[in-house]
Every structure is written in C-alpha cells, then in structure tokens.
Amino acid sequence: MANLGDDAFASKLFSSLVTEGERADRFLGVLELPGRIEKFSKWPDWVNPLLLNSLTALGIERPWSHQAQAADFLHSGSHTVLATGTGSGKSLSAWLPILSDLCDVSDSFSTRISQVKHSPTALYLSPTKALAADQHCALERLVSAEKKRLPVNVGVADGDTSSDLKRWARAHADVVITNPDYVHHALCPNHALWARFLRSLRYVIIDEVHSYRGLAGAHFSLVLRRLLRLANFYGADPTVIALSATLGNPRELLGQFLGISAEKIVPVVEDGSPAAPKKLVLWQPALLDSSGADEDGTEISSENDEESGLLSSPRRSAATEGAYLSAQLMALGARLLTFTRSRYGAEQVKEISRKILQVICPERSELIAAYRGGYLPEERRELESGLREGSIQALVTTSALELGIDISGLDATVTVGWPGTRASLWQQVGRSGRGGSAGISFFIASANPLDNFLVTHPQELSAPSEQAVFDTSNPFVLGPHICAAAAELPIRDSDLEIFGLTDFQVLYSLAETGLVSKRPAGWFWNATLPYSAHDLADLRGMGQQVQVVNLLNGDVIGSVDEPSSQMLLHPGAIYVHQSRTFEVKELGSREALVVPYEGKLRTRPSSQTEVEILAVDESFSSPDGLISFSFGTVNVISQVTDYDVLLLPGLRFVDNHNLSLPPRVLETRAVWWTVDPRVVDQLGLDASSLPGSLHAAEHASIGILPLLATCDRWDLGGLSTPLHPQTGLPTVFVHDAVTGGSGFARHGYDNLGPWLSLTERLVCECVCDEGSDELGSLGCPRCVQSPKCGNGNEPLDRAGAARLLGRLLDFLPREK
C-alpha cells in the first residue's frame, strides 16, 4: 500500500494517470484546490473539567475556531447552523454542550439528588444508519476515553436496534441517536412513553442537514416541527444545531426547517480546520470505435451507463470508465472511494473493476467491494472497518459514504457522473487526503448536459453552492403531517404558526374527508379509522412500489416506483436488473410478471404528455408583451403509447409495437413561458423548426436547473408544444416530478435570469458542432438530448433553441 503520509504520492498518481500513457483524450483539465492553515481557539469556560480530560486523552488539546464558536452559540441557547468542510470535526461542536451539561449535573448529584430526574437530554438525527453508527462509535470513544467513564448514557433507536435496547434508550439514555423515520413512526406516536426524555430535551442535533431536499426536506421539516411541539408540551424548549456541508443558504435553510425567521438563526461558516492541497481532475470516458469497442480494442457493453438510459454516445459509459480508473488507481497502490449514483451502479463498477484487476493486478482483485443501502448492519460495519484497517483497498459506494463517516487516510476519490450538487461533489472530494495529506480526485462526466457544462466551465464547480429547496406548503405533504400532529396532541389555534398556516382551511378540508374533527379542546385525529395517521406520510417519497416477480418461480426480483412502472415494465419491455435481463409478460397495479431473457434485443418506450393549467399564481410579461413567464399549479397527464425494439450492439431499430395503457395524472407545480408568433417569425423559425427548438430548450433548462437548486433532472419533468390549447401560444413547461410540488419549479421561476442564462451557455457552447453539421444542429447527449425523454429525443433543434433562449434573455437579468 502507499505511504499515506507522503504528499508526493498524490502527484505520482496524477503523473501516472494523466501525464503518462495514452489518455490525452480523457483529461479535460484540473482544478487546484489550495490548502488551508488551521486556526485554533481555546475551550469555552463552561466546558466541564471531566470532559476536558477525556478530550485530552483522545489527543484533542484545543478546538478549531469554528468548533468553539458553534459550541458557544449552542450552549447559550441560540439555534445554530455550522456549515464547514468535510473532516472539519463539526460533530464535536454539537457534543460539547450536552456532555458538559451532564458532567455538571453529575458534579451536583450528591447535594441535589432530585436533579437525576431532570438531567438534560439530546437527540441526534442522522440521514443514514451508517452515519448514525459511526457517530455512536465516536461518541462512545469520547465518553470512555478515561478510566472513569463520563456520566453519559448513549442509546441508539432505529430500525436496526433490538426492542430491548430501544426500551433501555427510552428509559435511561441521555443522548439518543436516531433518524427522522424513527421519530415519525415510533417516537412521536408514542410520545407518552418518551415523556422522561422529551421533558428534559435540551438539544436537537441535525447532521448533514443539506441532504434533506425537495420532498424529503419538506417531510423532515414537518417531522422536526412536530417533535419540537411535543417537547414544548412536556415543558422543554430545545435548542437546535444543524451540521452541514457548505451551502448557499445555511441560515435560511435551518430557519425554514424550524418554521422561524432566519434572523433567529446564528450561522458559523468560517472553517478553522486544516486542509492539504487537492487536485480535482476533470475526466471524460474513452472513445469507442465504430464497432463499440474501446480504443484499446476492449469490448464494452452499450448498456453500462446507469444515467444515460439508451442514449447513443461515442464514448465509453461513465460507469465503465469509473471502473477502469478505479482499477488503475488500485494497481498503483492507492486507497480510494468511488462514488456512483445508484445501488446498481455500485455493484456494476465493483464487478467491472474486479475483472480488470484480474488482468492488470491479480493480487488486488479481491480488495475492492461495494457499499450501499440494502446491506445488513453487520455487513456495513465490516466493510467500514476493512477500509479503515486496510484489508479493503477500495469501496464503490453510493452517497452513504459521502457523509460524515470517519474514514481517513484515503489517497483518491472517483466521482462517476455529477452527484447532484456542488455540496455533494466537494464532500466526496473531501474524502481524499484526509488526515493532512494531499489528495487527488477525479470527476468523470457522464453523457448528460449538466456534466458536459461543468467540465467545460470548471469555474462553475467553484461557484457558491446551490440553495437547498423544499416546500412545506405542498398539501400532499402538509396534510398527512397535520393528521399525525392531531393524533399526537389536539391542534389548537397556537399551533397554526408551527405548520406555516394562517387559518384553518387545511383542517376544514381534512375534516370534510373524515380524517380529523373539531372539538372544544381542538382538532383531533379520527381514531375510528382502520389505519394510523402516521402511515399517511411517505417520508422518503417512494410512493407505491410495483414488485417485479419471476413468473417461473415466483421470486421477487426487485421493485420499481409506480410512476416509473409503465416506462420500465410495460408488456413486452426488456427489463435489466443487476446485469440480468427479463422480458415483461404482464403489468398490474402492484406487480409485473417477467421471465428470464437471454437475447440481444432491448426496448425503448415512447410516451405522450399533456399539461393542463389549473391555476396561475404569478405571471409577468416582457415590456412589448410578446413573452410571458408564469408559475402555478398544473395537471401533467402522461401515457406510454408504444415502444421500439432495438438490437445490440448499436441499438439498431428493429420494430415498433403499440401499447394500451391508462393515462397517469400528476397534480404538481410548474413554471412556464410563452412566446408570441411574432417573436418566432423574428427569429426565423418556421413550422418545421419550431417544435424542435422548443423541445431542445426544454431539455436544456431541465438539465441545468440543478446548478441553482439542490435537485437533479430526475426531480423534474417538462413539456414543449408549438401551440398549447390554453395559452394559445408556443409554450415550454418545467414542472416538479412529485405530487403537489417540491419547490424546484418555484426556485426556477424566482431565478429565471440566472437559470436561462446558464441554459443558453450550455446550448451555445457545446462542442457537438465540431465535425458533423447535422449533429451540431440537432444537439447531442451533452447539451439538449435527455435520457428520460418520452419521445426518443425527437424532434430537437439546438440552433433554434439558442435563438429562443437569447430572445428570452433580452429583458431578464442574467444574474440575481
């Protein structure tokens, strides 16, 4: 293995992979990230001597400046958000106040024994079980660092915890480590059993708060508000600290989570921890020849890219490139993490890397493993331990290891495709070179517009982080949480502000459906219903799942969310699951029946979409009245109509089959713009070029919005039409892809100038016009083609889209 303390090793990796060999067509550039000198502070005066002794025993002599500052604010009772880099020890700031307070109580035990019943408590909320387990281990190390253990009881309560341990945590723990799902489904419904804990709740710690966005963010915000409402009921007034990677709006984010003014939040954003210099290498996959083989002659499957669907690309898939790069780094002795977007991607990259290593470095081929959700807790712990101790050299992981898990001494990271946000990218990059040594990271661009834009505009990677966006006013989110709150405690007038309500209209609507009822003491959940109020909220936004069942033996192969089922599991579809292929024989409302398939055919569905405008909330027009922008509520009506049969390799067209599937209706929120026919004429667009121009502009704007908000293109949908029946004009819609909306379309409307300016740059500056004139006119997967297009990316006109976007920007501010 490498000498992990040797900064020259990162330079060796860079030289071996970039400046040597035949990889010139893959290397696109490098971002040099400067190091940072550490800035210390003194321990706050209130930190108990017992705790100081334990910190010293662990080698922590002094806190970094941001740790002391955030801990001071938290201890003084100020809601605090701490947003600093990966490996900056954010959690210590959160633990200092509660551990010191508990030591203080222990010091006074002999004279005031009654205080034992009122010892302060703290609740730690983690977005993942892996991070929660890591924090539990770290906290236990601190508590037991000295021979005499600190007087702190730490308990874990989540889906992996035994009933006995959860009962112990409820009865005895001073600090409970859990997650929002457990709070919603177990703690809040049974709050009377948690009365001891809630009565003394002094601190709530939210780790990786930036990971809660969109629909999940709205759900988490309302769970948090309900928790604080219960604590208030038992006489507590907890102070909240949120720990986050760098964000564009940390103060506003925590204020929105709590439902209070951002002015009441104290931000700490200046990082006092040290950081070694890092290199972020911008990379693109290797070219394929006309036969679909690598430039070195290696045969590559055309269905390796988890992100690009069935788009045709002249380059190797990002997933396959990630596997090659990971294997090369391992062969050079590097310890690394490779990040993918999905569980399937993690398994896929691991398998390909292992096959490559069996050729180029057989002794290391078994030192790579996948790490993802779905593993048993003991399997996850074993993998984490193996990477720390060196028995595992590389892990291919989803975002689970992006978060604050303490794994240091890594030489490199590989990010396969854009991870969704700048915050996620820099957290992944932060995993390399931890512990003070230099590190190197690779960002491999996949075949989609946003990836291409970022590697050709690297300054955007260093721009301020996106703003976290969610919408708690979504009635399909708010309603279930109002029901859950009413089941916990009757809702009174004073509770309206907690949920962002100004009147009782939502409650009256719920009462009309028989879910709640009004009594003199408040609004109550209808306890006669045959289901729990807490079952109404879908915290993870998974929705109804359609099981994929092997018709031959009845085995459940996997599941697909119901909104995607018609596209992926329509009758006749070839369904790929973990490198195995199946043919769909029948699709029902709850399950799809499939049989194994060994042939070379693949399928690509087509769909038709209509958008019905239900309400216009806001709208404005250009001074000449020829262009208008609107935001409001819409129905998105979609139907899968037919599918193409394609032949590998090359995905050559074979046949087309019609389908008879029912339409789906999604009520959501959308932003849309219209242009007058006079504008179309001025731009030289005719009846043949207008549909493709609108379509290309729609695709590009969806692909680029994630640069402004914490979403990705799969959180959005769109429609373009040369004549919309309600507007009577050429119209482009971009809508949230979830019922009721997630806040992303709203954010787009509020930032139209910057959004469409970035979109125009993407369309105008793509290099697909180098070579074929036809390709440049139609666009490519790196600018206007979309992997999720229901119309097979037809028609598209990149040149026309550029002209349209330029005209829209004539009166919009390009910067906010």
List keywords for this structure.
seven-stranded mixed β-sheet; alpha/beta; 24 helices; globular; single chain; seven-stranded parallel β-sheet; 816 residues
Structure description:
There is one protein chain. By secondary structure, this protein is α/β, with parallel strands linked by helices. The protein has 24 helices and 27 strands. The protein has a 7-stranded mixed beta sheet with strand order 1-9-14-13-10-12-11, with helices on both faces. The protein has a 7-stranded parallel beta sheet with strand order 4-5-3-6-7-2-8, sandwiched between helices. Strand 13, helix 14 and strand 14 form a beta-alpha-beta unit. Helix 9 packs parallel to helix 16 and helix 20 crosses helix 24. The longest helix has 20 residues. The chain is globular. The chain starts with 7 loop residues before the first helix and ends in an 8-residue tail after the last helix. The N terminus is likely disordered.
How many distinct beta strands?
Answer: 27
- Please estimate the helix content: 25-40%
Uncertain segments: 1-6, 295-309, 771-775
Radius of gyration: 27 Å
- SS-derived structural category: alpha/beta
- Number of helical elements: 24
Overall pLDDT confidence: 88
Shape: globular
| First and last CA, distance | 49 Å
Described by strand count, sense and barrel closure, the largest sheet is: 7 strands, mixed
The fraction of residues assigned to DSSP E strands is 15-25%
Q: How are strands sequenced across the largest beta sheet?
A: 1-9-14-13-10-12-11
